[in-house]
Amino acid sequence: MDRFDTIVVGAGMSGVTAARMLADAGQRVVVLEGRDRVGGRMNTDRQAAFPVDLGASWVHGIDASPLWEFVQALGIPTLEYTVGSFQVGGRPIENFDGDGRAMDAAAIAQWISDVDEADRLLVEEIAASSPGDTYLDVTERALDRSGLSPERIDEIREFFRHRVEEQCGAWIGDLDAHGLDEDAIDGDEVIFPRGYDELPHRIGAGLDIRLDHVVTRVTRSDAGVVVRTDGDEFTADRVVVTVPLGVLQAGSIAFEPPLPESVAGPIGRLGMGVFNKIFIQFPERFWAEGSYVIRALGEAGEHWHSWYDVSAVSGIPTLLTFAAGPFGRRMQELPDDEVVADAVRALRVLYGDAVGEPQAHWVTHWGQDRFSVGSYSHLAVGSSHHDHDELAGPVDGVLHFAGEATWGDEPATVGAAFYSGHRAAERILGHSIDLAEFAARITAREQTETR
Question: For the whole model, what pTM was predicted?
Fold first, then answer.
C-alpha cells in the first residue's frame, strides 16, 4: 500500500489549493474526490456554446482581496457585476411594487430611503442583541422603531427576509442576529465569462486527483491516518478534509476516534443553507437595456423576487433568479419545468405578454447533492463566528479541515475556501506561503507545458 505525506479529501477550491501548495513544497499528495469532476461547488456547465456557472459565480468585493489579486495574476478575464450583495440601490434596478406595477423615480427614492433608515436601526439592534436572538428578532425591533406605515414595514420585512435567503440560504428566523456581520463588500464584484471553475482546474492541473473516490472513514492514530473510500484504503502522515459542512453534518464520513468537541461542536452549531439557481433564456429582452436587476417588492415578490441580467456571458437574453432557504428546499423537489414555469408566471405579473416562452433553462439542486448537502454555511442561532475558525482544527496534529465553513472572516465564499486551503498548507509546512509566488509558479508551469 502506497503511503503519502498528506491526503486531501475533496477537489474543490480549498482542496486543490492546499494540495498544490503542499505538492509544490515537495510533499507526496493525493486528492480523493467523490465526484466525477474537479471544482466542488464551483461547477461550470459548458454544454452550450457558453459557460453557465451553476455554483459559485462572484468574487464578492475586489478591494484588498487576495483572491482578486490571484485571479489577476493568472490572467483570468472577469466582468464587473456588482449586485451579488443584494443591494437596495446603487445599480440600475427595475423595481415593482406589491401589485406588480413599475415604480417611478420618486417611489424608488422613498423605498431606498426607507431601507437605509431601517438598516441604520438594525445595526443598533444587532449591537444590543443578546445571545440566542435571531435575525428575525432584531429586524422586527428595528421595524418597530422605524415609525413607518404598516404597508411600508411589510415591504421592508419582505426585503430583509429575501436578503437573508440570498446571502445565507436560510430562513430569517434560523439565522443568528450576527449572521450578516461579515457581509460587508468592499469594492466592485466580478463574474467570470469563461466560467469560474477555470480557477480550481488551473490550480489542480497535474496533481494526483482520484475522481469517483467517495471517502467513508478517516482513522487517526500516532502513526498517522488511514482514509477509506468505497473501494480503496490510503495511508498518510496527515489528512486535510475539505468536504462541505453539509456532508460533515450528514455523517457521511466516520471519524475514528470521534471528533473532539472543539470540532464536533461547531459542526453541530453552524447552519448549512440551500441556495439554488435558475437560469432562463428568452427569445428577446423584455426588460430595460442596462438594468442589472428586476426586483418585485411586497406581495408580488413573495417567492420569486429578483432576476439578474446575465446576458453578457452568452450574448443571449438571460435572467438568473434564485430559490433559497425554505422556498429553495421546496422548489428543488419539483421537476425543473415546473420551477421554470412558476418563475416565468411571476415575471408575467410584472411584464405581461412581453415575456416570451423560455428557450433554455438550467436549474440546480444543491440541497439534494450528496457531495454538498446544501450550498454554503451560515451562522445558525447559537453559533458564533469563532465556530467557523474552530472547525479548521487541527485535531491531534494529523487531521485538518478546510473549506468556506472554516473561515470566519468571510464564510460562504470562494475567497474563504481559497484562504482556508492556504492556511491548512501553511500549518502543515510550518511556514508562510506567498500567494504572488504561488500564482507565479502556476503560470510558469503552464508555460513550460505548452512549449
Answer: 0.96
